[in-house]
Amino acid sequence: MKTLVVNADDFGFTRDVNQGIVEAHQRGILTATTLMANRDLNESAFNDALRLARENPSLDIGVHLVLVGQPGFPPTVAKLIQAVALHRIRIYDQLIAQVRRILDAGLKPTHLDTHKHTHLLPPVLDAVARISEECKIPWVRRPFDFPLTGQRVSLKKRFTSQAFNIVRPRFTRVLAQHHCRTTDHFAGFQITGHYNAADLAHLIRNLPEGITEFMCHPGIFGDELRAAPTRLKASREQELRALTSPEVRTALAESEVTLSAYPQL
After folding, report:
1. Cβ-count burial of 133 within 10 angstroms (0-12 exposed, 13-18 middle, 19+ buried)?
2. pTM of the predicted model over 0.85
3. CA–CA distance, 217 with 62 (Å, rounded to integer)
4. What does the alpha-carbon distance between residue 247 and residue 184 come to, in Å, rounded to a whole number?
5. Domain range annotation of the chain
6. What's the average model confidence in pLDDT over 59-71?
7. Residue 145 DSSP code
8. CA nearest to 59, candidates 36, 81, 34, 39
9. Spelled out in words, what is the top-level CATH class assigned to the domain 2-264?
10. How far is CA 233 from CA 13, 20, 123, 129, in A?
């Protein structure tokens, strides 16, 4: 049996990103999203995401934990590693505050992931796994892409994805120690920002048996997104078109892939 969770990062980043995520859920195949709640986030975008989450109870909500690339945090993963080595950042305290902000808003997140996959770093993974267990948020992203064939993937992305596997044994062991759950497979890292409906349909037709999380970044390319600190801008609308495409729906049906969210797994 093949099951697919389609999970959008960056809910709460900007209001036009929020709009794209909800549209991908209402009109397309998106089933889940993870909400950003770092302290220096755009307040209006965060509140807009809370409103939309309440208005769309079928949209499965998780937490997109932030330690890098946003105001108040190191700008790059390399700088984050340096800050961690020098004990300049209290990882658990930063992350649990973000989770509590969402819990205090009355939402009940079911899954966790991190901005820029920082939970591949051992100290971050330890904090995320601890939070998963303490807050009873059972699902944690396993960001190891399954091998892609026939897809347009840059050599840099392919090499980076393969390099992630260095930490895979410890990653699996830590999550098991804290009773965290993960999907069987993951996809999206290598093609984020570079796929269209045909590419997504091809991926769906080649899904392995079991449960796969597909990471995506839909959005509307509006004024807020244009001004936001992210490399993914116009590509978010392309992802939205792919996620709402009849071609992708056809691929799901013909491949007998079941769409799901984390609470139904």
Report:
1. middle
2. yes
3. 15
4. 25
5. 2-264
6. 94
7. B
8. 34
9. alpha beta
10. 12, 12, 31, 31
